[in-house]
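Attaching the record inline, Q. Sequence:
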Amino acid sequence: GGIYLDSSKNVTIDYLIVKNAQVALTIDANSSNPTRVTIKNSIFDNSAFYNLSAIRGPVINAENCFFGDAGLLSAYLYAGGEYNFKHCNFVNYYAGSRSTPAFAMTNWEVIANTTYTYSVRNSRFDNCIFYGNASTEFIVDTLEAIEIDFVVNASLIKREEIYEYDNYSASVIWNELPNFYSTFDNDFHLTESSPCINAGDPIYSNLTDIEGKSRDLPDIGVYEF
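Structure, as predicted:
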């Protein structure tokens, strides 16, 4: 079934691998005092539904994390929250049929025909890859009746319709091939022709990648070339 955190405080996850679950990691903030989780150097892959499901306003800080194949979404940030993701891969090459993107974020939900909105607060996505075998792998679906505060910076995104909003920095790379080593073998290291090489933002980077390789001039994604 995977790992389920409900109203948990100050959780740290480091060097964890979860594979072949229904939902690899659920973070439920169903509380006025939100769940707070730090995730580093971890892999969540081959889930039946989601690799990451974040529900109703958790605070999540993640770096050097890989959210891979899933039957629905690699990561679903649902109904608001506060997020800081850097050097993460949201990469879905699920072999079955899939009509959903690798990554989606919303700030609303419908319960008994009533729509409820939640804030997206102080959130950043830096040096991340959003890619896969669908035509659109990145969706943000928000209602503007409440705070929406997020930035996507120095990331590679696959999406049919490019977002042209102030939330997306000029350093975002749209719809270029990331040139992974071998998607067939699930090897998502970068090849020398990848546009992700040296394209990261050093201000929002970290010292090493998931394998401990130094990030001097950072690449986009989990792995340094």
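The mean pLDDT is 95. DSSP finds no helices and 23 strands in the chain.

More tomorrow.
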